[in-house]
Amino acid sequence: MQAILQEALNAEERDRIFRQTMFDAPILAALIFSAKETLYKALYPIVLEFLRFDAVVFNGIRGDETLSLSMVHALHDAIPRNQEILIQFEIGGEFVKTWAIIERGTLHSFR
To answer: Assuming Cys at both sites, which of 18, 43, 53, 67 could form a disulfide with 8, CB separation 3.0 to 4.6 Å?
Structure first.
């Protein structure tokens, strides 16, 4: 968990993990890490570069199985700054699973 906290999350995200009561801190840290990885893998074909963990920020949990991330900087015409992207998740015991279906209309038009 220490590696995830230091490498994948910013100070505000770390604070939020320990203030919330919905999930155990290690589970939420793993969930955010997994969501960021999912988004980076989905966006690579568009941006054609490897993204750092600070390229997006965790906004919070939306509903029972949806997590919100926002782009910190514009990465491409199709992915502007502050673009919110929703990541679906499932938690089973100590494991988390995340996935995203990003349709062409979800982000601004792909070029």
So the answer is: 53
